[in-house]
Amino acid sequence: MTAQHGKRIAVIENEFGEVGVDDSLVKRKDFGTEDIVEMNNGCICCTVRGDLIRILTDLFKRKAGKFDHILIETTGLADPAPVAQTFFVHDELQSKLRLDAILTVVDSKHLIQHLDDPRPEGVENEAVEQLAFADRVLLNKIDLATDAELMEVEKRIKAVNNFAPIIRTQNAVVNLDKVLDLKAFDLKRVLDFDPEFLGDQEHEHDQSVTSVGFRLAGDMNLGQLERWLSVLLRDKGTELFRYKGVLSVKGFDAPWIFQGVHMLFGASMDDQEWKCVQDRTNRFVFIGRNLNRTELTEGFAACLVTKPLRFEVGTRVRCHVDENQWELGEVIKQWNDGNPYRVRLHNGIEIWAPIDNDGAIRLACRAETRMNK
After folding, report:
1. pLDDT tens track for 2-42
2. How far apart are CA 350 and CA 342, in angstroms?
3. Angle of the 80-89 helix axis to the 49-63 helix axis, nearest 10
């Protein structure tokens, strides 16, 4: 979407999470002529389907003749059937729009786990539904899987849908000509495997899957946050389907972007600085099964910087440098690269103290040069 493709695209972005994160990511980037609309008060196939009709109708009133394509990005928990059905049962939309194709983006590392995920009776498996309706499948994150694993994933995809071409991608990078203006949606094929597609259908999501989101002012301690997330993923990673955030980190002028799936997560600093101090806020959302709201809320809030640092520049300190080893040093900077302290040890080596507590850094005694815990 960031390429100079010359296409006029309206984007409707739907978030399952109670706190929107993706909108703040896409709005920070220059997507040229795209018009971006967010819906984040529910799953697009259920509670916000009426919003979808309203937004599409409004787009025609405000932007008539100003876009060539509408890209609707649903949540990973959406059943595509009710969304696709919208374009056949609503007379005005049917007269103005053509459903071009349904694209399904697949996580090559975790797809099989979700295809085999046991569900209560009557609860549909969204991963299966999304593959069954797909006109194209983008097999993403191929850098995280071996060739043998990719072949097995493709085999499982074809077992559900043998019609959709599979396009291997990394970071979801794909030529737009392979995913736009395909004229690939085939109503006859859909009716063959879902004869009730055009009728009134009820579907039930797994009620144990929820979202927990935060929107907090203040700055985060990056090291403390990463440690908390590491413990959380170790203990609860299999139940965390998706988590993402845009964070204000102490010591940096640009936002930090956190994204993860199950036990794989990454963080990076955005290439654009905060526009103003008022924009510096933290938004984070977890989507998963059996989430403990209190535990997540308190753990996240504990990573906020709420107190001034204990040691000024020039203070002699002891730093925890190894399992049972402490070294004498001097604080030379505060909040350096997201760490509370940068310390020059007595041997000249410079290190960071990532957390301002006695487990990482302590005040040194005057006569002390070295101490073993």
Report:
1. 555 667 888 877 665 555 555 555 554 544 444 545 555 55
2. 7
3. 50
